[in-house]
Every structure is written in C-alpha cells, then in structure tokens.
Hints:
InterPro entries: RLIG1. By secondary structure, the protein is of the alpha+beta class. The protein has helices at 41-45, 83-96, 106-109, 152-155, 233-242, 307-312; strands at residues 14-19, 32-39, 52-56, 60-67, 70-76, 118-119, 125-126, 129-130, 140-143, 158-159, 164-170, 178-184, 192-197, 215-219, 250-254, 260-264, 284-286, 294-297, 300-303, 318-319. The protein is globular.
Amino acid sequence: MRLGSVQQKIPCVFVTEVKQEPSRKRDCQQFQVVATESVSPVAVVAQVHHAVATEKLDGTCCYVSVYKGRPHLWARLDRKPNKQADKRFKKHQRSHHSCKGFLWSVEEDFKPVPETWVPALGVKHHSGQPVPDEHGHIPGWVPVEKDNKQYCWHASVLDPDLRAALVLRPSAEDGDALEVVPLPLADLLERTLELIGTNVNGNPYGLGSKKTPVHLLVSHGALRIRDPPPVDFQQLCSWFRESPEGRVEGIVWHCHDGTLFKVHRHHLGLRWPEGDPSLGERAVVVAVGSGDNVFRSGGGVVVRKDSFALFSALSGRRFSRLMDITFTL
C-alpha cells in the first residue's frame, strides 16, 4: 500500500475547538486549536480505526513533480492574505467563532507569489481562481532553484547532475534502523516528503551543526508506528507521555480510501519537543556511494563539499543514533 501524498492541510482526527489563549505552537497567535475527546465523524466514516499510523515529522513539506520537462523538487509555499485581509479575516473569526462565511477576493486579498508558483493538487477553483481553504491559505508549490537563497537547504539535499536526492528511510535490512540513501528524483515522482535538518524548525532531531549542516528528505508515510495506540483521546495522551515511541511530534493516519488525519501533541495540550525525539535516537546506516565527491573543472580536480560529498565520505558507516552523525572536514 502506497501511503498518501500531502497536498492539503491534514484535518485533526478529533473534533476541535478554538480557545482564546496564546498558541503553544505559533508565536504571536492569540488563540489555539485544541482537540475534544470526540473522534471526527468524517474520520469514523473513513475507518480511521483501521488506518495505517505513521510518524508526523517536524520539518517543511516538499513535492517531487515535473518542471521544465524533468523531475524536480518543489518547496511548499502557501499563498497567504495580505495584512488588511488578514485583519478582516481574524475579526470575522473572533465575532463568529468560525472561519465559515468569510468572503475572499483572491486578486485583491492575497500576497503576490512567484510566476512559477502552482496551487497544490485538490485546491478548488472558482471562475479560474484558486479558492482559499478554511484557514485562509491557498496551498501551493514553487520549484527549488539552486540560486534562490530562500530554499538553499532544500537545494542542499539535491545533486543536480545525478538528478537525485538524499533520503532518510527505514533500513531494508534492519527494520529498527534507518538508512541515508541517494534516490533518483524520477523514483519519487508525485510524492510529498518532509525536509528535516539543522536549519528547519529549530532542528528538534539534533541533525548536524552550524559548521556542518545536515538536511534530509523523508517520504510521507515512510516511518510507520509499530504498535500504535487506539484512536482514543486518553490513550493517545498516555502514549505520548509514557511510551518511548511516543516522543514524536504527532501521528498521521493513512486510511484505505486515501484520506489522511492527524493529531499533533499541541492538540492534546502537550509540549513539543519533549526530551529527545525518538527519530533522533534511532540507529542509522549511511549508504551513499563513495567516489562521487570530486568532479573535473577546467582540467583540474575540485573536491565537492556538498551534502552528497559529506555523506559519501561516510558510506558504509553505522551510527547508533541519527543525531550522532558527524563529519570530518
């Protein structure tokens, strides 16, 4: 079973409510969305109790699709309202205790985006214009260009010559361990992945350092939870608090009809990160082929210092913890 691609914001597996108190997840947000103890009726219909539970990763979403005729990595860029429209939207939220019923003008209310921006799959359109979701965002993607500093950490996991990316996945030989491998972008077409690492979301997994940043891609749904708790508010709270495997940002359930649901620790009033996340403590094997860390330029040999070169120097090494990966420069 190939697990779902993440194109839209994933709804919570529980019915949620808005509390007028500072958010634990987002600075400067004066409200937070919390879960009630009732499982979402939509999730029940989708048979979430029989779904595949996977780890929700704390990174930034990416997408592999064709750009200029070739497989290419795209970065997530949600089109968001400008300041004036955002004020009107929040005023509507406060007075109606809901996002429903707010009228948008896509042409006037939203910040500009690059010409290369495309809306995510599944975004509804009206009169040729993409329609914002309930949060007032229009999910979308922009291609990662190597000369764009905003996406330099996305570019760091790519080898433009090999058309490949550095991917972290469960080891084929040891299910408890992970492995870092280069995969052709063509093998990842139409998949979404999470970019994690040193300069993403405060680096909760402890990857790399300021001197030698480490970034990797993880396919969504790749990290299955081996013994997941039932979809029950109290049992999930206990699992997050007490189980070593529960030291994760959240859970994403992949239903058999392709529907996705999630729960974040913040939905349950729990902190994140809490201690050392379980991902950072898993053993990892580096399986990036050696010999690719030099190239010829103008008749001379230039030593490469990108992520592929750094990992190729460690090819065959096994580390007891993902966070222990270190490079000798």
